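Comment thread on ticket #2218

A.B. wrote:
> Attaching the input chain for the structure job we discussed in standup.
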Amino acid sequence: MPIVRGCNLPDDLLYDIENNIWYRDNGDGTMTLGMTAVAAAMAGQLVAFTPRKAGRGVQAGKSCATIESGKWVGPAKVAFDAEVVETNDAVVANPKLANADPYGTGWLVKVRPADLSAATAGLVPGSAAAQPYEAKMTADNFAGCAP
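C.D. wrote:
> Ran it. Output below, let me know if you need it in another format.
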């Protein structure tokens, strides 16, 4: 697993590095997505998570959820056209789960891409994410995740 400046980037995931979002292919035509450890560290402790409702469509580059911390409010953007099929009610009830376990219980939503192969083609595999993330952290002046 690549670790960049103390931030874990699991190999088995795909990344939208620009938007700090990870994706997991669920093998059934859907993908789970969440905030990367980088995003969770940059945002600080989350205080609110408001996802789009299941059944709603989301266009590429648009928000599938609003995330709020003490110092930031912003969108979780989907990298491709998709439909929200499930939201993580546990994170709605306790947004800090996304900070504590961003790649596990802190997932945000599950989506069904309009075109799965096109969706995955634009994402960076975990094994290749370290160098682009290092460059993004430098550009964002981000020191890294706390140990």
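A.B. wrote:
> Thanks. Noting for the ticket: The chain is about 20% helix and 35% strand.
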